[in-house]
Amino acid sequence: xxxxxxxxxxxxxxxxxxxxxxxxxxxxxxxxxxxxxxxxxxxxxxxxxxxxxxxxxxxxxxxxxxxxxxxxxxxxxxxxxxxxxxxxxxxxxxxxxxxxxxxxxxxxxxxxxxxxxxxxxxxxxxxxxxxxxxxxxxxxxxxxxxxxxxxxxxxxxxxxxxxxxxxxxxxxxxxxxxxxxxxxxxxxxxxxxxxxxxxxxxxxxxxxxxxxxxxxxxxxxxxxxxxxxxxxxxxxxxxxxxxxxxxxxxxxxxxxxxxxxxxxxxxxxxxxxxxxxxxxxxxxxxxxxxxxxxxxxxxxxxxxxxxxxxxxxxxxxxxxxxxxxxxxxxxxxxxxxxxxxxxxxxxxxxxxxxxxxxxxxxxxxxxxxxxxxxxxxxxxxxxxxxxxxxxxxxxxxxxxxxxxxxxxxxxxxxxxxxxxxxxxxxxxxxxxxxxxxxxxxxxxxxxxxxxxxxxxxxxxxxxxxxxxxxxxxxxxxxxxxxxxxxx
Length: 487
Fold this sequence. Notes:
Blueprint: E1 4-8, H1 13-17, H2 20-29, E2 34-39, E3 55-58, H3 62-71, E4 76-79, H4 84-93, E5 97-100, H5 105-114, H6 125-133, E6 151-155, H7 160-164, H8 167-176, E7 181-186, H9 191-195, E8 202-205, H10 217-226, E9 232-235, H11 240-248, E10 253-257, E11 268-270, H12 278-283, H13 310-315, E12 323-327, H14 339-351, E13 355-358, H15 365-375, E14 378-379, H16 386-393, E15 396-402, H17 405-412, E16 417-420, E17 438-440, H18 463-466, H19 470-486
Parallel strand pairs: 1-2, 1-4, 2-3, 4-5, 6-7, 6-9, 7-8, 9-10, 10-11, 12-13, 12-15, 13-14, 15-16, 16-17
Helix pairs in contact: 2-6, 3-4, 10-11, 14-15, 14-19
């Protein structure tokens, strides 16, 4: 006799959607079984048409549910709700075979109230649903794409470099869920990074300084996101605000780092390690989805330089075939190598047959003009937008830079990078990723003096940059150029 199974899930839309993989496992184990699901009437449509569900019944009260269970001739009852109401239904129904989902309610309350973590909290709801099936000897028939994921949201509202290092995560997500739509919530200044890749289907703007700012801003943007019906959120940005937005938006599965200020709002908290590069840390967010953190071959390159615009071509006219990108700026003063040494480096690069090309934002124009005059460099500081900067990377033989966002853009485009590190260190995980790059730095007990740098040296001596000579940086440039030529 084929099993007749009644499944009870009387909770929210996200919880109902996440029951989907259970029906696949039931049908895989008992192909001829009949599955009836009891849900709240407002969520019945979420399961209608599901290939593993034969009937969806709207819940209208405990007594009606007991009557359904008794008169339906069910052989199995699966309680995926696990509260007093579902306990009364399964107790009074007297269905021969019952199995119950353990929701770890006490552990969840302890975690929210006291931050007491237990191993059970690290398991996804779908996995815990399947633990209930084990009582019947039903194995999981899950694959990574079986979590009901149709729409994915990635929240990344940090700096340019952080955004660039999120791109491999997006590529990995598209590989795990090839049929899902992927949306990125980001800032206007980094939106072009995500719009320019084939792994992103939609870019939404987080207007932190406008309509989405202030105390009510997260509620406003969450209300907009809620209309999108997202199934899964990944949150590489470790702010409380990002986790709060995902929770307020009602996204049923929310994966982020355990070091996030809003980690208690996540469904999956992944360990954050400073010993990993930020690119690999971001990839580790796919661990709960059954993927790995280690990049595959060639994954250190993930930006394809676009075709140069006519305007950029005109700016480079007559520059010659061998260009060296030079980025002397940074948002933080303690990340900037000395301007006069950048100028001397440009003189030496010209002597090596390279045309130094200065790049930077509008705020770096005075710095660029000074270095260009003293070093004989082509000054494009403040003259290129993000798309043109990506295109420029396709022309460079080497890129010399402070610890900055353009450093990651060059590395991702496959340009050999010489990175000058002062206030920050490699151990923070933001060095140029991939083979063929060099970091030039000095070993000082005061480094790093912060996660991002500072407006002035806390020790007052600025030795982290003053001790780095032009000889060291120029030698590193020659080394990466020679290695690139050999490769």
